[in-house]
Amino acid sequence: MEKLHDLIIIGGGPIGLACGIEAQKARLDYLILEKGALTNSIFNYPINMTFFSTSDRLEMANIPFMSVAAKPTRTEALEYYRRVFFHYKLKVNLYESVQTLTKNEDSFSIKTSKGSYETKKIVLATGFYDLPNLMNVPGENLQKVLHYYKEPWPFINQKVLVVGGANSAVDAALETWRKGAEVSMVLLRDEVDENVKYWVRPDIMNRIKEGSITAYTQSKVKEILEHEVVIATPSGDVTIANDWVLAMTGYKPNFSLLDQLGVEMSLDEKRQPCYDQTNQESNVPGVYLAGVVCGGLNTREFFIENSISHAAAIVDDITRKMK
Fold it and tell me: What's this model's pTM, rounded to 2 decimal places?
């Protein structure tokens, strides 16, 4: 028989760590399972990324988050959550991906890439940075098509097409252009997203206006070829020479774990999981949702700063029901 844990938290990002801290304070027998590095999503952010939020709003568990500027960088965030992890000596299994979840009569069985576990309760804090939104066009499987962007150096003196108009796309376009890439953008609308970081948006707008970066507005990628890309524009198809496609088309939660447990989804385009907003418990008793996964495909509703409170609500509900 496997040891029966009180709680297993799936996801070792900031919200998963916050849940672990609350579980530890409540003296629960808990474990965090993380498929990659600690705070894996933040690790996979672009190397030079700056957060939209100020550092004080990302703090947790009474540990100050000090950053050089008001808005911290990716590196500062990684260091902060590393210190949180070691300060609380959190029980986290890294590089262990969850494969199957099974609901039993009074518990849950979890099989991972490294072992098996039994637990009374589950928290899904899996974020949304795992699965890119695909363009579903011919040639998207070519090696030159990237859905994750890290740094500009590989694109020096290359013809780069950036697909998307949100923060990640704008950052990629500006950084690669400044390092000597010939950059074009494909935008669904008339201009970049109005929610782009306010200190960056004027920069990209001016680069497009002056012609340094070519923007194909109200357009979509139609086909990707080995050395070209075909773009469907309002004026007809346009074929441009191309070395790399950076498809910054956003990401979505991995719904497979929710489906395995029977968590219901809304029937609209958001596909929002069903849960009680007072305690974060889903329609499946004993299964709790924390963080961005609560928004379904609407990935702009929940952030670190407005999801940290999920941890206390969940653990309070679990401890209350254990009495």
Answer: 0.88
